[in-house]
Amino acid sequence: MRELKYYIACSVDGFIAHNDGSFEGFLQEGEHITDLLESFPETFPVHFRNALGINPENKCFDVVLMGRKTYEVGLNYGIASPYPHLKQYVFSRSMKESLDPNVELVSENVVGLVKSLKNQTGKDIWLCGGADLATTLFAEKLIDKLILKVNPFIMGSGIPLFREAIAQTNLELTHSKIYGNGVLVLHYRVRQL
Question: How many CB atoms lie within 10 A of CB 103?
């Protein structure tokens, strides 16, 4: 069975973006980028890959799940298919149609679709953003791992890892790495009771 991994950058105080969706404060260069590009090359969007002139194979994921607001970050820069090397799903109740044939829009039966994806063969599934989506999937016990790229700053307010309160849940730290620039990458397995 495939695993669903919530792999995301956050501030020390647990915010994944500012209230307006911007990412000021997150470190965009440094040794952690080089390391993450080696470990998770498929998580870098197409414009970043094109700028570097690279097209590495997918190592961990072949499916990406995005909430509408996460997806719209790329749309604001004219990027309608940020991860064409992955099967892309955007979850939204307000969008009426996909802006790119490589992006599948999902407005109903979110849980059913994710359960179906987890039961298919293939690489793991990447939840790349969407605090509302993360809350829904976590409440349904569908998230298997959290991989947090903790950036060395306090945002103060913004969009949290989870939009609403979730049940207290034990996590098992399976791997961690601290970089010289202060970025900390934490791998947690969700302990389901």
Answer: 20
Nearest to 8 by CA among 148, 107, 182: 148
| Alpha-carbon distance values, 6 to 77, 132, 156, 159 (Å) | 24, 13, 22, 15
Strand positions, DSSP E, 31-102 = 61-67, 87-91
Compute the Cα dihedral for 78, 157, 159, 128 and give only its sign: positive
Segment 108-127, tens digit of pLDDT: 999 999 999 999 999 999 99
Number of other residues whose CB lies within 10 A of the CB of residue 95? 16
List the one residue out of 108, 73, 78 whose CA is nearest residue 93: 108
CA dist 39 and 64 (Å) reads: 16
Residue ranges, the chain, pLDDT below 70: 193
